[in-house]
């Protein structure tokens, strides 16, 4: 998208109804990391969010990629170095208004050339992703190459990180886009959410915007020193809400489609020893050498499906992500007793009974683990085995914990195996609770 900030763009009022019709969201209770291209991006696009997070006690860290030294390339009164110093001072003042405890890190990368620095940007973000986090960046489709570079770097840094939620926000799209006409729909049709701002957050944002006179006031009366953000553009940032392009919730199918679109192996199932060892422990915990009919919901790309198939007469594997199903189907294509289907559980639980049900790393994504547990118990044969394995660490996209899922699954069943590590929880249940030695007649 090419646009000219000096040309009158879409009136802020044209977006008002569209903004009000967006789904309102709460701010995740997570540390906040903000990556922006230039000083003032953080205040314009996410100042209310920063103020809200800080007021709630969240740790706030802002990474500012460039010093904004290229904002007035034709200025006759300020050099790039002078502009950089001015904008750093403005950013520090703005953040004091928004979140006095926030930490700002200036990366001092070249303004206007951030696309050449994406690896460095992604590395800086990774250095600050020390745990579960809400990562917020400028939007990839905003029409400014530096904004797009920050969005791509943020996405690369959190790829495969289930404990990081990545939101993006527009700056210039408000100006060049129109919610009712192309190319505005490229923005308006994104999955956007609205964060409503309380009076304190709005006031803090208003004060912070005022800390950037170099951007919304002329540097001088000379040509080349005109304001970058005239009042009609600033009007887009004076609403009582902020808008973010947010990923689909983890309880929706599109969430997993998005994961696989960016990485065919989003959890490192094929490369990590951790994952291989966990699969081997799960297989070793099975109390029988062979099963008649098994069901594996959430099969992903089939890394567990394949060894399960060696111990089952029939195996039904399912997932909701089309890319995962393609990979799994290719992996077991030579096994006629394995069927791979697209199903969402528990809503599309298959008919029939199973003497083995394997619920691995999928239970915390369902809306209600109790419904999942009911479906599993009803489908379990009298001598059936239910095994579950789930990540124990906090993850931003997990609506439920491993303990909550296993408590629901194990209700009314007898636990025969429990393996607890710092990283994951593994449980095996059956209706009777027979030991392997008793089943084989070693003990009576």
From TrEMBL:
**InterPro entries tied to this protein:** GlcNAc_PI_deacetylase-related, LmbE-like_dom_sf, SAM-dependent_MTases_sf, SAM-MeTfrase_NodS-like
User: Which top-level group of life is the source organism from?
Assistant: Bacteria
| Keywords from the UniProt entry | Zinc
Cite the SUPFAM superfamilies for this sequence.
LmbE-like, S-adenosyl-L-methionine-dependent methyltransferases
Pfam families linked to this entry = NodS, PIG-L
Q: Write the protein's name.
A: PIG-L family deacetylase
> What is the species listed in this Swiss-Prot or TrEMBL entry?
Jatrophihabitans cynanchi
